[in-house]
Amino acid sequence: MKGIGASPGIAVGRVVIHWKEQIDILREFVEEPEREIGRFRTAMEFAGEQIRETYSRVLETVGPGEAAIFKSHGLMLRDPDFVGQIERMILDESINAEWAVKTVADNLIQIFESMGNDYMKARSDDVKDISDRVLKLLLQVGGVDLSNLGEKSVVVAREITPSDISQLDRDNTLGIISETGGKSSHSAILARTLEIPAVMGVRDILDYVENGDLIIVDGETGLVFINPDEETVARYEDLLAKYECFKKSLSDIRGMSTVTLDGVEIELAANVASPKDLDDVFKNDGEAIGLYRTEFLYLDSSLLPPEDLQFEDYKNVVEAMEGRPVIIRTLDIGGDKKLDYLAIPEEENPFLGYRAIRLCLDRQEIFKVQLRAILRASAFGCVRILFPMISSLEELREAKKILEETKEELRTEGIPFDESVQSGIMVEVPSAAILSDYFAKEVDFFSIGTNDLIQYTVAVDRGNEKLSHLYSQYHPAVLRLIKTVIDNGREAGIWVGMCGESAGDPKLIPVLLGMGLKEFSMTASSILQARWIIRNLRKSDLEQAAEKVLSLPTAEDVEHYCTALLQSLNLCR
Ligand code: PEP
Ligand code: MG
Q: What is the DSSP track for 281-297?
C-alpha cells in the first residue's frame, strides 16, 4: 500500500492497532443546563491540566518547538470565543455538553479545512485533538495505552494526533502508520522530530491489517508492506541497517564544515517560519537562515502585525544567528495562505492571482511597514531581503524603488539600518527563470523556489493530491530552468541559492551541486544529511552528471538517473 512519507526512516515490526474509541454523541435535552455548564467547565479544567502535563513532558523530552503545540492547545482551550460558543449553545438550546462541544468543534474544523491550506488543516487537527480530549473526559472513557506498548511495535491508527505521539512509548514504537494526515500536519512534524518513521494518508489500511501482522514502514517513499515475503523483509532489513549506520554517522558531522572533497564550500541554511524554529536550526547546525517565511507572523495574528512587533520578531532571529545571514522574505500571502482580515475577494485561480509581491505593490502601506521592520532589524546582524513571486522586471524595479524610499525615510528619522543590505528575488515563476539574465543585473542574489517553480512550470496545483503524480521535482523542464538561473547568476557574478524542497532532496543534491548551486536552504532536520552527502562528493565529477540529467526526457528518467547516481557514490539513504 502507499501513503505519504511523513517522517523518514524504516521500520520492520509487528502491528499494534490503535483503535480510537468510536464516541457516539447524541443530542439530548437537559432539564438543568447550568449543571451541564458545570460538567463542561470541570472537563475543561481537567483537560487543561492534562495539556499542561503533556507540555512539560514534551518540553523536557523533546524540546520547546514541539512543546509549543501543546501551549497553543492550552490557549485554544481558554479561548473565550470557543468556550463562549459552547456555553451559549448549552444554555440557549438546553442540550448536553457533549453535543455542544462536538457541534462547535465540528463547525470550526469545517471552516479550517475549507480554507484548503496545510497550515489551516493543522489548526483543524488541533481543534480535533482538543475536542476529543474534552469529550473523553465528559464521557469518562479512556484511550488505548500508547505509553506502554509492551513490545516493539508499529502503531497503526485511523488518525494519530499530536497528543497520541507525545504519549508514545518511545522505547517500543518502531513506526507509525495512519489513514489520515499528511506531511505538514503537526503529528508528522512531531514524528520527524522524534525520528519515528511514519507514513500517513494510507487509505483504508485498517481494513487490511490485524494486530500482530508483520509490517514494513518506509517513511521516505510512503510504501507500506503488510505480511511481506522473505525477500522484501531481507531487502528492508538491509536498508534499515544502512540507515542506522547512516544516522549514527550524521551526529559526527555536527560542527564540521560543508565542503566537497575537492574543496568547494557550500552554505547549508534552514527554512524557518518563526523564531520558535531556531532551536531546530541550532540542533541541526544550520549555517544561516536561507528563508524566513514571514507570512506566518501575519497568519498568527487577527490583524496586521504592527511595525514594532515585526521588528522585535525579526531582530530576535537576526540576533540569535550572531552575524550569520538571515534571508527575510517579504509577505508571501495569497494562494494557499489567506489573510481573512485583508478581506480579499475570492478568486478563480488564487495561485495565479493577487498574491505575494503583487499584493504588496498594490497595498504599499502594508509593504512599507514590513520593509521598515526588516531594515531596522538589519542593524543587528546580517539581513538579506527576498521578494517573492516576482514575474517581471517592472515588479522588481517597483519593489526596489519602495525599498529605497523606505531606507530614505529611516535615514531622515535617524533610525539605523545596514546600508549594505542585500536584496534578491525568489525565482519561482518560469518568466523570472527565463529572464534571469536580465534579473541578475539588478539583484544581489537569486533564491530558487522550486515548490512554486514546479507548479507553475508543469501547471499542477502543488496542493492537489489527485495530481501529485504530475508534480515532480525531477521534471526535466524544471531542471533546465534551474540550470538557466544558476548559469545566468554566475555570469553576472551574483550568488544563487535554493530554498524550495528540492534543495534538501538527497537525490537532487549531487546534480544541483554539479550545476553550481552555492546555497541550499531546507527544513532544519535535513541539514546534517545534506552536509554528509556534500562532504562525500567531488564537484568536478558532478558537472558531467548535471549535463547528462539535462538531456533526459522525462521525470521518471531523471529520478532513475539521480537514484543510481546517489547509489553509485556509495552513500546509503
Ligand atoms: C517555494 O515556492 O519554493 C518556496 C520556498 O516558497 P513557499 O513554499 O513558501 O511558497
Ligand atoms: Mg513559493
A: HHHTT--EEEEEETHHH
